[in-house]
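EI: anyone free to look at a 319-residue chain?
SC: sure, send it
EI:
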Amino acid sequence: MRRILLSTAKILISGALLYLALRKVDLTELFSRFTLSSLLWIGMAIAVTFLQIFVGVLRWRDVGAACGAPLELARAMRYNVIGSFFNQTLPSAIGGDAVRLWLVARAGAGWRAATYSIFVDRAIGLIALAILIVASLPWSYQLITDAHGRSALLLVDLAALAGGIGFLIFGALRWSWLKTWWATHHLHACAVIANRVLFSAARGPRVAILSLLVHVLTAVIAWCVVQSIAAPVSFAQVFLLVPPVMLITLMPISIAGWGVREATMGLAFGFAGLAANEGVNVSLLFGAVFFMVGAVGGLVWILSAEKAAQGSAQLGVPE
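SC: here you go
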């Protein structure tokens, strides 16, 4: 009952926020802007999304190896594509992570190693996103002249950055009770692994570059969407506005980020002196791109050996 109520609440939140955001959009006018070139740009956005998934796979494999959950490239790519489907169907913007965890655990890595690999991978991605936003703050402040917008951006990003830095500092602590107390044992173990990955001479630079590239590709996807409807928005504006929106969308309070993303994108565009309705337009098409990629992930899931096994057997991971 608790899960049903939580899912229902997230559906209602998505619906309410979408309703409020769509009040600013003239769908007839939006569809009238589609041309043949629009389809090419949307196709480009889909291709870049698959590239982004692949880049995420490369990072996840490094993290998974450090967690004792190694995966070959093809299997990791399949799991991430399947995860993109469940990101669109489960009541959260990170629902695919739970499915990836389940798949890795079933593959023979075990629940602990699988959980650690997903959690550390997500934490490193969040830290990279917060760092990217902080690094772009001087230009963001030039773009966003609204005082409330600046305050909101600074508050959200500093909270994320503080959480990320705190997580890494937590892993550097050597108090023995952190490794044995039930409330800190697993979190501390994940933080230790994150430090080991990020500050490794072999893995650290590669993981850092891949993590930043994932978020840069998000801006590229949004830029392709902007081009598809010839919205009067530059790439620099997209690059500065989209990462903070993605940070807020990570909050698991809606279905696949729908509603939260549209409302936040509209506000972000408004704070930057752009048309709020264009922000909602871009967000809707951005979500549509990920929905189409998720549909491919659903097909991969239907045809996968993991689904055919019905949970009856482990599928094995490489040693």
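EI: The radius of gyration is 20 Å.
SC: 👍
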